[in-house]
Amino acid sequence: MSTLTASSVFLKTLVETGVTHAFVNWGSDHPALLADLDRQRLTQGTKPKIVICPNEMVALSAAQGYAQVTGKPALVIVHVDVGTQALAGAVHNVDRNRAPVIIYAGASPFSTEGEHKGSRNEWIMWLQDVPDQPSIVRQYMRHTAQLHSALTIPGAIRRAVQIATSEPKGPVYLWARREVMEQEVDPSTFKEVLASTSRQTWPSVEPTALSSTATTRIASALLTAQHPLIVTSHLGRNPDAVSSLLALSSLLAIPVLPVCPSVVSVPHSHPFGLAPTFLTPPSDGGFEDALESPGAAKDLTYLSRADVVLVVDADLTWIPALDQRPNYSARVFVLDGGDPLKTTVQMGWWRGEAEMICHADAEVSLGQILDAVRESDVAGLITEGEDVKRRSRKLTQSWNRRVRDMEAVELDFTSNTQALIPDSPSSPLRTSFTVPNVIRTLREAIQRLTPSRGERTLILNETVTSFQIVWEHMRPEVPGNMLSSGGSSIGWALAAAVGANLGGTVPTESHSSPSLSSDSVDFTTAANGSGAGEGGGQQGNRFDLIVAIVGDGGFLFGIPSSVYWMARRYNTPFLTIVLNNGGWRGPKLSMLAVHPVGLDSQLLSTVPADTLHTGFGPVCPDYSQIAVAASSGWAWGKKLDTSGVPVADGGKAELEKALDDAVKVVLEERRCAVLDCILDGI
């Protein structure tokens, strides 16, 4: 079919706005889109790269991963109300992460007697015609709109992209009846309607700055503070803001606390950077299975000691009910470039703590504060004074101690030893890996085997109850080289790895750190054609390795049967590390925090997870082989535990070999690799 339709206008406008990829899950509402893609195939038209996604949450998670590494929106196409519902928890993630995504869903035709092309002709079209389809996702969207005709589609799309890419960035939802997308358009009208909107600029909103009053007050507070503190969660989404943050931190020896980070905002090597924290509440009842490192618990005390707190791009900086929060006399200043009042959170958390709340971009505002500090202290009486020098010494010493403690934990492969037969003195002993063991070994393999020595490795951290441990022991340095979903719906990482892989071949929208810039790296290409799919995802990719680190529960939530099929088809190999503790640790910990003791006065922490209905035993899935099967044998998979290994070694040598093999499979053979690491059960 060569006829131009509203769908032709739709796809052409998206291409003109810079959309390069469409993650799709087709349905009966999309005949005109499929027909136009075929028309473009025959006429060498320019269309988005189509990525088939056999699951809607996978599609949106892949689009989020793409947006996180490029700063550009991708298109997600789903099927009417049911496809919109099947986007599932990924809708929450793209909202909370402020990821720009264009979601399009068709809708049941409005005509039933054949009055229009595309009229109802299948029984499901009556069942799928719900009263308010956009309401399914409206509260998570920055914008929803119905497309009414071919003539107005270009303006509607450009408006949607404009909103999605303006702070607070996020998803938008467009929908149309089938007859609208089938509307025929003659060639002259097609050109005219596109030209009329392409002549307009439709810019995103420019970053906002601080007022002179706010700049002066914040700079003065930091200059006179005895215990200043900077808190951030996602400032590193703009890598250029990181340099301003580090400059301010270094100038006044201000510690920087990453709270619930979703991106690298403070390089691990910065001596004034504190241990990241996810504000894990303390547990009662003798439960000692730590979710955060000792360094994180110690560094969190900086909150309660601070007399001035500068909060920059943070979703949550402390939990009011916990002890570690600023003193009521502390001066708190809040900077946020998108939503400083957290209007999309039902219970906002600024309840009088803040002296000033400023709608201001991090890069711009920190630059203003830095200039104001320098202007106020031209002679260096404060920045070169004894207070700043003393803070600098203490912070550096504390950082060195924390690194030494981390080293000791990472290298200890034998302390996690127990008898195979409890309460039996003659029982043989067994040991098991710890998360620090696995993460250190992974980090060293990456540094040793990747061409960039880890500088161009992307880590996707979705380990939930091991978030903090993984974040700290990976020791990330480069803004943008470690990400999480930014939300709480598990199942993001696997599909995000595919999307990020595809996005790695696309120039970034704006700011990029030097080590991630396509101008400064020697690109690698696929080593051979084994399993090469349509996407060519590694060719010219600014990431030499992508690693998804997940729990066993998160692996299943990620729909591996769809993801690894996609990875093979679109040639987007990545490494998956499964931290397998045998179940859902999060729900068990939540229960223990509220109900540490059972009715029989037994500590519930000692009750096996399977008994508490949070375990996957006694027979758990073989996770790595799910990936192998989904990719028809293309993916490499291995389950690794310490059964039968000498306790003296603790499995160290076997872990090192397995991780080396897995990394080489991805780097050299261009295949996915899944390493299932068996930890102590919950």
Provide an overview of this structure:
Helix 11 packs parallel to helix 14, helix 15 (386-411) crosses helix 16 (435-449) and helix 16 (435-449) crosses helix 23 (652-669). This protein starts with 5 loop residues before the first helix and ends with a strand. It has 3 domains: 6-198, Rossmann fold, CATH 3.40.50; 212-406, TPP-binding domain (Rossmann fold, 3-Layer(aba) Sandwich); 434-582 and 620-678, Rossmann fold. Helix 7 links the parallel strand 5 (143-146) and strand 6 (171-177). The protein has 682 residues and is of the alpha/beta class.
Give me a quick take on this structure.
It is built from 23 helices and 19 strands. It has 682 residues and is α/β, with parallel strands linked by helices. The longest helix is centred in the middle third of the chain and has 26 residues.
What brief labels describe this structure?
3 domains; 23 helices; 6-stranded parallel β-sheet; single chain; 682 residues; Rossmann fold; TPP_enzyme_TPP-bd; flavin adenine dinucleotide binding; alpha/beta; acetolactate synthase activity
Radius of gyration: 26 Å
Report strand order across the widest sheet. Answer: 2-1-3-4-6-5
Outline type: globular
| CATH topology label of the largest domain | Rossmann fold
Main sheet: strands, sense, barrel: 6 strands, parallel
Mean pLDDT across every amino acid position: 90
Instruction: Tally the structural domains.
Output: 3
Number of strands: 19
Secondary-structure content class: alpha/beta
Indicate the proportion of strand residues. Answer: 5-15%
Number of helices: 23
User: What is the CATH class designation of the largest domain?
Assistant: Alpha Beta
- So, the CATH homologous superfamily of the largest domain? Thiamin diphosphate (ThDP)-binding fold, Pyr/PP domains
Helix content: 25-40%
- Cα distance spanning the termini: 58 Å
Domain Thiamine pyrophosphate enzyme TPP-binding: 466-585
Family: Belongs to the TPP enzyme family.
Subcellular location: Mitochondrion
Region (Disordered): 505-536
